[in-house]
Amino acid sequence: EDQVTQSPEALRLQEGESSSLNCSYTVSGLRGLFWYRQDPGKGPEFLFTLYSAGEEKEKERLKATLTKKESFLHITAPKPEDSATYLCAVQDSNYQLIWGAGTKLIIKP
Amino acid sequence: KAGVTQTPRYLIKTRGQQVTLSCSPISGHRSVSWYQQTPGQGLQFLFEYFSETQRNKGNFPGRFSGRQFSNSRSEMNVSTLELGDSALYLCASSLGHYSYNEQFFGPGTRLTVL
Predict the structure, then answer these.
(1) Could you list the mean pLDDT of each consecutive 10-residue stretch along chain A, which spans 109 residues?
(2) Between A and B, how many CB-CB pairs are < 8 A?
């Protein structure tokens, strides 16, 4: 059965303290892995799409990487405005989209 | 460019009733997907519509249905509401079908079933 697991569930960091969020998956025929950010009371906001192992994408303080079993979202020198829930989703060979439960990131000033 | 809009934003219903939610996609986007988000289950895919046709469907009972109009606006309907249907219902639009790359989400409709 296709499954997406995100860890940790929650992460508290000091401003400037770099870290990584993990998204591990088991899926039949990965078509794509997506990272989204969701702020309270809002819908998710698209960040990255990764298609194959070894691929990397960067945007400001965020960098997403992909292996055959997992993806990492690296956050470098985070700021309080980076606080949000980060969601990972994978698309399988049947075009089904399976979402992880998310990691709630809190950056303290 | 206007974003995805959803109406109503909040809704309170009682068990057994039915509800219709509306979604207006970004202008030019032809695909609309619907999701249910709950604290326990996270985001779960309901269905996707493209050019007025359902192209993909998640694992939800037949009480959940939807449709898309020629102007790409979409509605979803839930009949015979159950307490477990309380959730945030999100709509997302994108240019093409199966095109989950760069979906744009609306703010959601918060449904409470009493």
Answers:
(1) 93 97 93 94 92 95 96 97 96 86 96
(2) 49
